[in-house]
Fold this sequence. Notes:
Number of strands: 6
Order of helices and strands: EEEEEEH
Largest sheet: 2 strands, antiparallel
Number of helices: 1
Strand content: 25-35%
Structural class: mainly beta
Strand order of the largest sheet: 1-4
Shape: rod-shaped
Amino acid sequence: MAYDLFLANIFFKKREEHVITYKSGSSKTQIDFLLMRKGDHITCKDCKVIPGESLANQHRLLVMDIHIKRVRKKNKTWKCPRTRWWNLKEEKQAIFKEKVIT
Length: 102
């Protein structure tokens, strides 16, 4: 399609009842579509119509499952090791004092 888009709900093969978005009397058609960028098609896991749910009298609910990766923040790395002041007692205090003085 134009502008690097693709139709997500025709990308997956489904039964007729999971594709039809508009149903009125004897006419059944697929008139609702979900557009995605071609680069993001990997995140689209499934796209279907839920047969039992309807938004209006004749339109059915179109649903898309996507997988979004969560970006984790890296922990800050300290250039010099942190001094654990609460840990400086007796022997360790004397060792630290010698390191600082020399």
